[in-house]
């Protein structure tokens, strides 16, 4: 199924942010539910071929989502997202982290602030995700980790690339 | 030494050189005139760009003109595409879920 839905993907080197905007063929409430209920998140959050499984979730300010992305061989990559501010059904902010299966946060790996904004676009919902890292090297580290092997040589040059793209 | 397109764009002067000759082929002297740095520094950048296979030389009489292998720039695009893909697959899964949920209602 192919739609002409808005999709922007912007990297900003100055602010160390990734901005991702995407329109969805559904109302705001339904899209909000997909982002904020674990049984729904589990069905889409990990990009193929990964799957998502939730260990625990408490969607409230000060609450958390403890989940794993599981690759086809069964390896689990644990994440721990803390919910900071929630304003249904307009936006929420989180602080994400890498963790282990026990939910202990890995302090050596970068954390990022997420601001997820929900707005109406006619009958559709527009979701804007702004991910802010503390530094550019944090952003690089995370992107590096999320990538398949074989790309490492070029990853060192991410900051310069982002700069070029901003021009 | 192995060089790639990302090394080519790693330096601001080289990016400026790329922008310059993207418009038209130029001689090394003409390129150097656009910069405050020494002619040698520019030559070194041109050497790197050539090693990255982003530049090709064309002889016209006694002059050497540098021009851009613009196709090479596509590698950057292809590389960035992978990051976009992660979000794209994630969102297309959400599309599927949304359409399933809407049908259930």
UniProtKB/TrEMBL annotation, chain A:
Protein name per UniProt: SRPBCC domain-containing protein
Organism field: Mucilaginibacter celer
Family according to the record: Belongs to the AHA1 family.
Domain (Activator of Hsp90 ATPase homologue 1/2-like C-terminal): residue spans on this chain: 28-162
CDD domains associated with the record: SRPBCC_CalC_Aha1-like (cd07814)
From TrEMBL, chain B:
Matches recorded under InterPro entries: ArsR-like_HTH (IPR011991), HTH_ArsR_DNA-bd_dom (IPR001845), WH-like_DNA-bd_sf (IPR036388), WH_DNA-bd_sf (IPR036390)
Single GO MF descriptor: DNA-binding transcription factor activity
SUPFAM superfamilies, A to Z: Winged helix' DNA-binding domain
Occurrences of domain HTH arsR-type (ranges): 1-88
NCBIfam families reported for this sequence: HTH_metalloreg
Protein name: ArsR family transcriptional regulator
Organism: Mucilaginibacter celer
């Amino acid at each position: 199924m192919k739609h002409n839905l808005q999709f922007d993907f912007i990297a900003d080197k100055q602010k160390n942010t990734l901005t991702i905007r995407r329109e969805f063929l559904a109302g705001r409430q339904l899209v909000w539910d997909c982002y904020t209920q674990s049984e729904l998140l589990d069905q889409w959050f990990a990009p193929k071929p990964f799957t998502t499984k939730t260990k625990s979730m408490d969607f409230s300010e000060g609450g958390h989502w403890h989940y794993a992305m599981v690759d086809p061989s069964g390896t689990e990559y644990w994440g721990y997202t803390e919910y900071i501010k929630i304003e249904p059904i307009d936006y929420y902010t989180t602080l994400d982290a890498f963790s282990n299966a026990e939910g202990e946060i890995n302090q050596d790996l970068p954390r990022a602030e997420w601001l997820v904004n929900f707005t109406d676009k006619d009958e559709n919902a527009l979701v804007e995700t702004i991910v802010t890292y503390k530094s550019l090297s944090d952003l690089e580290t995370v992107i590096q980790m999320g990538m398949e092997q074989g790309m490492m040589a070029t990853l060192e040059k991410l900051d310069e690339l982002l700069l070029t793209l901003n021009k | 030494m192995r060089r790639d397109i990302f090394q080519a764009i790693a330096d601001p002067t080289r990016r400026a050189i790329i922008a310059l000759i993207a418009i038209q082929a130029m001689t090394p002297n003409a390129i150097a005139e656009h910069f405050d740095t020494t002619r040698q520094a520019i030559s070194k950048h041109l050497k790197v760009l050539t090693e990255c296979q982003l530049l090709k030389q064309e002889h016209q009489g006694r002059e050497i003109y540098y021009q851009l292998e613009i196709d090479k720039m596509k590698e950057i695009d292809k590389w960035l595409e992978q990051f976009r893909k992660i979000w794209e697959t994630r969102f297309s899964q959400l599309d599927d879920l949304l359409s399933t949920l809407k049908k259930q209602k």
